[in-house]
Amino acid sequence: MSHPPVVFISSTSEDLKDHREQAAKAARALGFHPEMMEDWSASGRPSVEACLARVAKADVVVAIVAQRYGWVPDDTNPKSIT
User: Fold this and answer.
1) In 51-74, which positions are buried (b, 16+ CB within 10 angstroms) versus exposed (e)?
2) CB–CB of 51/81 below 8 Å?
3) Residue 30 lies inside a defined structural domain of this protein
4) Which residue range is the domain that position 31 belongs to?
5) How large is the average pLDDT for residues 26-48?
6) What are phi and psi of 6, to 5 degrees?
7) Number of helices (H) and strands (E), helices first, in the chain?
8) How far is Cα 68 from Cα 76, in angstroms, rounded to an integer?
9) Total of domains in the chain
10) What pLDDT, on a 0 to 100 scale, did the predictor assign at position 8?
11) What pLDDT, in 10s, does the model give residues 53-70?
């Protein structure tokens, strides 16, 4: 049995909650399985490696971008994770 394609939906969560919900709804309507942080276990912030591993398994990545940054990992790479 084949699995539905996975779409990783990325954005900041607090300011774009409604947009995230609509993106997930649209993905499901098109036969995709949305991969969203809301569905991850509550273990605090995931590591950069954990986020990248989920992105690598996705068939599609959707980034919803607005005016707010995500979190910045505690390492020498100052990029925001969103």
Assistant:
1) beebeeebeeebeeeeeeeeeebe
2) yes
3) yes
4) 6-63
5) 83
6) -100, 130
7) 2, 3
8) 21
9) 1
10) 94
11) 889 999 999 999 887 666
Owner of token pair 């997930």: 24
Residue 21 CA, distance from chain mean position: 12
Q: DSSP assignment, residue 8? A: E
34/52: higher pLDDT: 34
Mean pLDDT over residues 29-53, rounded?
Answer: 81
Residue at token pair 């005016």: 67
Residue 74 belongs to some domain of the structure: no
Predicted pLDDT of residue 24: 96
Q: Which helix (H) or strand (E) holds 30?
A: none
Q: Is residue 73 part of a domain?
A: no
11 pLDDT higher than 80:
yes
Q: What angle do CA 12, 17, 19 make, to 5 degrees?
A: 95
In a domain, 1, yes or no: no
Q: Which amino acid is at 11?
A: S
